[in-house]
Amino acid sequence: MKRNTRPEGHPVRPGGPAPRPAFAVTGIPGGTDEVEAALLRSRLIAAVDAFGGHHGPEPLTVTITNRPADRPPAKAEAKAEGEAGDGPSVAERAEHFTATAPLYTFDRLVLPDRTMEQLLRAIHIVERRRTLFEEWGLRTIQPHPSSAVNLEGPPGTGKTMAAHAIADRLGRPLIAARASQLESKYHGEGPKNLDALFHAAGTQGAVLFLDEADGLMSARFETTSHGSEHAVNAMRSELLTALDRFEGLAVFATNLVSSYDTAFDSRVRHVRFPVPDEAARARIWCRHLPGTLPLADDVRTQDLAAVDDVTGRDIRRAVIDAAAEALLTGRDRVGQADLLAAVERVKESRPHRPAPLQPPEAPQLRETEQPPETPPPPPERLRPPAAGK
Fold this sequence. Notes:
Elements lengths: L1 E3 L17 E3 L9 H22 L4 E2 L11 H8 L9 H5 L18 H15 L1 H7 L11 E6 L6 H12 L3 E5 H4 L6 H16 L2 E5 L2 H4 L9 H19 L3 E6 L14 E4 L5 H10 L13 H5 L6 H17 L7 H13 L41
Parallel strand pairs: 4-7, 4-8, 5-6, 6-7
Antiparallel strand pairs: 1-2, 1-3
């Protein structure tokens, strides 16, 4: 709806009434009853006229839409006319997110039965969405039937591989992004980028995979004393809104979330990815030793699996490292010692984070007191024998 001042050539007589604006109401669907259309125009004009009486005669454009996800036409018109806007449109931002073919299938996953069951259930809901929400009428209780799964667990436990496998099972491409990619140094840009990511997944019919989503899904700040805290809360609010609108499948991956925002409870299924146990490690080792890799006769996957505290990612890195080491040293086979040494190197290369001192390790001392300097006792083997012995 547009309101313009009286056209030139029709001046107001001195002392006469103020000019009434000329209104134009467009966009009423064709086929609407003429009486209803006229009534709608009359009410809109009266409302805008009353608004103008309080806010002055400046030109005014009002957009009314029942599709909040759509960018208002006024912005598109302003951009076409070369007026200053608020940056790229959602569609333009979405061009930065391109769907690709999945890289992994379900037969590559090594997961506990419970985890696999939860993943398959999420896929089943997407596959039978029409029956559930249309034929069985569940849309009446869930108007926006989006499907969202959060894969939570330590790094390297197969979350990214699972996201690809889910897309492959559904026969869809995958759009993958990290939460850090969506952030911006400019205030307000993060939520727009997040909106564009969901827009891209919807228009390309892709499974959306958002990695490192810990910050987006953790509990919101109750008070925002810093701009960064306000920006994080804005991103979380936009994520909730996007999930309500999105009718595809969104997959998140988180590592260290200790407290989720309760607003996600009704929107997201959480699936736990544990560190593999020995039986799972044996299967992972087998799947990471392809038949074309020349192995020495002494390689035993059960012995390799006995090395604990390793993930599938660690095992993959160890196999590649061991094979490279064999080539560098002029050997044509990879032996058990190569693999064991490689997996230990991988474990040692992890970032070390010192644990906080425990009470026995951190004696409480008053600030005014210093502990006496006493020499440490000699090692047991150097102590002199007791008298009489």
